[in-house]
TrEMBL record:
The chain crosses the membrane at residues 6-25. It comes from the Eukaryota. InterPro entries: Cupredoxin (IPR008972), Phytocyanin-like (IPR039391), Phytocyanin_dom (IPR003245). This is Putative cupredoxin. Pfam families: Cu_bind_like (PF02298). Gene3D superfamilies: Cupredoxins - blue copper proteins. It comes from Rosa chinensis.
Length: 123
């Protein structure tokens, strides 16, 4: 009887631990940072958690990437001040803490609406 009880507990632990690892693993998302992409669709179809990574890929001759300070700056495409300015064409940005993040392209935010906001959940 005691052996069966411990075997059942071991089986449960074996089955549950991969699930816990999957839940706690950070995700990496590829972002095609270019004109014509539906960033609202991308942001709403994914659930982001603190620790996840957004990999932005873009043509650095035509685009850059800024992180807006807040929703007002984001709505108005206000570039300064900002929380980060990137121009390499390949950025891997970790979503460090829960909350809203606002991304914009300096060259195409106003003219083409090239911006994206994401909400990051706590783990």
């Amino acid at each position: 009887m005691a052996v069966a009880k411990y075997s059942a507990l071991a089986l449960i632990a074996f089955l549950v631990s991969p699930i816990m690892v999957m839940v706690m693993a950070n995700q990496s998302y590829e972002v095609d940072w270019s004109i014509g992409v539906d960033f609202t669709d991308f942001a709403t179809q994914n659930t982001f958690f603190a620790g996840d990574v957004l990999n932005f890929h873009y043509d650095s001759a035509s685009h850059n990437l800024l992180i807006a300070t807040d929703s007002d700056a984001f709505d108005q495409c206000q570039m300064t001040p900002n929380l980060g300015f990137y121009k390499s064409g390949n950025e891997a940005l970790t979503l460090v803490e829960p909350g809203n993040y606002y991304f914009m392209c300096e060259y195409n935010c106003k003219s083409d609406g090239m911006k994206m906001s994401v909400y990051v959940n706590n783990m």
